[in-house]
Amino acid sequence: MSEPVPGAQDSTLQRDTGLLWHPYGPLDAGAHFSVTGAEGPYVNLVDAAGTRHRLLDGMSSWWSVVHGYRNPVMDAALTQQIGRFSHVMFGGLTHDPAVELAERLVEVTPAGLDHVFLADSGSVSVEVALKLAIQYQRARGRERGTFLALEGAYHGDTTGAMSVCDPVGGMHADFASLLAENIFLAQPPLPEAPAAEVQAWVREAENLVDTSAGKLAGVIVEPLFQGAGGMRPYHPAALQALRRLADDIDAVLIADEIATGFGRTGSAFASQVAGITPDVMCLGKALTGGYVSMAALLCSGPIAEVITRSSYRALMHGPTFMANPLACAAANASLGLLFGDETSGWQPAIERISPALEAGLAPARELPVVTGARVTGGIGVIELNRPVDIGLTTRVAAEHGTWLRPFRRHIYTMPPYISTAEMVDRMTQAMVAAAEAHSQESAS
C-alpha cells in the first residue's frame, strides 16, 4: 500500500510545520502525512520522504465520515444544492433543505423531541443546550445556572462546553479561571458491574442532586459511552437514574449524542438503550457524513413551550451560518443513507462491523501492556497501562494499511459504515500490532 517517489519530499508537510496549529499539537510538530485524495474508506497520503500510502481510515475522520469519501449520493446532493444557492442568512428567511432536515430529525430521534435548532458544530450545539437550560429555569422564575456533569466527560472545546468537561483529567484544566463552576459526579459503573456497585453509584447521585437541587439548571451526559474523555461505556441504569433525578428537581436533561448518535454504539441513539428520552439532544459528526460542519439540537415540546411563553420568547443564539443550505443538503443525504435503506443503513453496518471488531481485538487481551480490549457497537478500543506513543502507533498502523489517531492510553477505531468485515479485520490487526510494539518497547 506504499509507493516511494524517488528523490521526492513532500512540500505540503514542510510548509505546514511552524505555520499551522493542529489539534492539541505544538507548532513545530507538523503532521505525519499530507492528504492527496480520498475515496470510499481509503485516504491517499504522502509522508515526509515522499512515499505514497493508501490507508484505510480507521477513524472515520474523527467519527464523522461514516459513508466514506466521495460518496456518490453525498456528492450529488451537494452539487445539486450548489446549483441552487450555497448560503443564505436564516434570520427572517427559511429554505426547503432546512425544513426537510428538521422534519427528518424529528422523525428518526426518540418521540417527544419536536423542535430543532441548527448550529455550526457539535461544541456550539452544547453551548446552545446550556443556554437553553438556563433560559428555561429563568422562565420558570428560578436563578439556576449550574450543571451536573460526569467525571471523564468531554463535550467540546468552546467555553461553555469546556465547563462541563472533566475538570481534572480532561484537557481544559488550565482554563479554570475562565470557566463557570459546575458539579461533577463520579464516572458511572461499567455495563458489567455488579448490582451493588450500580446501586451505590445511584445513591451517590441522589445525594449529590439532593444537596445541589436549588442551583442545578440541567444535567448533561454522553449517553452510555464517554468518548474523548476515555472511550468508556457505562451501565444503562446510571442514565435511567439521571433521567429520574432531573425530573425530580425539574432540571433539563441534555444528552450529548454527537459521537454516540446515528448507530455508533449499536442503537440509533444511545439514549434508547436505557429507554429514556432526554429533554434536549445534541447531534453532529455523522449528521452530515463528514462533508460539512454542522450540528443540531432537538428539544422537547414542554421545554420549548416554557421558553416561548416567557419574556424571552426566542432561544438566544443565532450563528451566521445557521442552517447553511449546503450543510442541510449534506445532512439530508446522510440521513437518507443512515435510515432510508434497511440493507445499507447504520444497522446492517453495525451488525457487520461489531463482530469483526470483537474477533479482531481478542488477541490484544493477552498482551502485557494491555489492560483491556472492548467493543461497543461500532467502536473498538484497546487500553494500555501507560500513555500511547502516538508516533509509534501511527507508524505501525500505517505499515498495516490503516490510519489511526490514538490518544492518552487508547488505541481505538470507529470504522466507516461502508467497511467490509475484511477491512475491519485489517484495522484490528493494525491496532493489535501497535499494542504489540508497545509491549516490545516496554520489555526492552
Automatic annotation (TrEMBL):
Example of a GO cellular component annotation carried by this entry: cytoplasm
Localisation: Cytoplasm
Residues given in the record as pyridoxal 5'-phosphate binding sites: 122-123, 256, 319-320
CDD domains referenced in this protein's UniProt entry, alphabetically: OAT_like
A molecular-function term among this protein's GO annotations: adenosylmethionine-8-amino-7-oxononanoate transaminase activity
Site, as annotated: Participates in the substrate recognition with KAPA and in a stacking interaction with the adenine ring of SAM: 24
UniProt-listed Enzyme Commission number(s): 2.6.1.62
Binding site for substrate: 62, 154, 285, 318, 405
Modification sites for N6-(pyridoxal phosphate)lysine: 285
Enzyme class name: transferase
Reported cofactor(s): pyridoxal 5'-phosphate
Residue spans crossing the bilayer: none
Keywords (A to Z) from UniProt: Aminotransferase, Biotin biosynthesis, Cytoplasm, Pyridoxal phosphate, S-adenosyl-L-methionine, Transferase
GO biological-process terms attached to the record: biotin biosynthetic process
Reaction equation(s) it catalyzes: (8S)-8-amino-7-oxononanoate + S-adenosyl-L-methionine = S-adenosyl-4-methylsulfanyl-2-oxobutanoate + (7R,8S)-7,8-diammoniononanoate
Function: Catalyzes the transfer of the alpha-amino group from S-adenosyl-L-methionine (SAM) to 7-keto-8-aminopelargonic acid (KAPA) to form 7,8-diaminopelargonic acid (DAPA). It is the only aminotransferase known to utilize SAM as an amino donor.
Subunit structure, interactors included: Homodimer.
Stated family: Belongs to the class-III pyridoxal-phosphate-dependent aminotransferase family. BioA subfamily.
NCBIfam families listed in its UniProt record: bioA (TIGR00508)
Protein name, as recorded: Adenosylmethionine-8-amino-7-oxononanoate aminotransferase
Organism for this UniProt entry: Auritidibacter ignavus
